[in-house]
Amino acid sequence: MAQNRPQRVVVGITGASGAVYAARLVQLLVAADVQTHLVVSPLGQRLLQDELGMEGVDLAALAGFEPEQAAPDNLIYHHFKDVGATIASGSFQHDGMIICPCSSNTLGSIASGSAQNLIHRAAHVTLKERRKLVLVHREMPLSLIDIRNMQTVTEAGGILAPANPGFYMLPKTIEDIADFVVGRCLDLVGVDHDLDIRWSGRIAKRLRDTTTA
């Protein structure tokens, strides 16, 4: 991270199931005092409504704030059609972009170099500037088209981080499962967090005790 600017992360939300991951990601970035630049596709907005009951893009709610609170200053929203936004330029320095969740349509657009909206454009800029681009793809099973698109993005420098939670932490809630995926994403872009997702001897012992009980 440059010494003369805050830590910055760009977040895209698209129309694959997994709104809980998106909301938790934004919440933790804001709490870590990271300047968070958010773009939500139209199907991403529908996702937030269908899975979180959110009307429109409610920045305060995404940040985990109470209804009467204003949106945090470090959460900046960009309209998906605004391809002239700051994050569409390579001169805008940031520490990584995370698309969470990432639909197969978005994956395909990035792989093909087709910039239909600001999320695609920002992703292409992230790749060309050799910054970290993390795609939290959430589809199964995968078609050969998806697999080839993943290969193309990976060869271009992107990171495919499918929403595949580990269960060695013995999660008890949906939030525990979401934290595992989101914590790994934060690791990939260098954002500190205190989520309990690390493998350790303590975890191994807990698993042994559970399986032998």
UniProtKB/TrEMBL annotation:
The keyword Chloroplast does not apply. Coiled coil: none annotated. Its EC number is 2.5.1.129. Signal peptide: none annotated. It catalyses: dimethylallyl phosphate + FMNH2 = prenylated FMNH2 + phosphate. One of its GO terms (molecular function) is lyase activity. Keywords: Flavoprotein, FMN, Lyase, Prenyltransferase, Transferase. Residues 8-188 form the Flavoprotein domain. FMN binds at G15, A16, S17, S41, S103, S104, N105, T106, R138. It comes from the Bacteria. It holds the Pfam family Flavoprotein. Dimethylallyl phosphate binds at Y168, R184. Flavin prenyltransferase that catalyzes the synthesis of the prenylated FMN cofactor (prenyl-FMN) for 4-hydroxy-3-polyprenylbenzoic acid decarboxylase UbiD. The prenyltransferase is metal-independent and links a dimethylallyl moiety from dimethylallyl monophosphate (DMAP) to the flavin N5 and C6 atoms of FMN. NCBIfam families: PRK06029.1, ubiX_pad. Belongs to the UbiX/PAD1 family. This is Flavin prenyltransferase UbiX. It comes from Algisphaera agarilytica. The gene is ubiX.
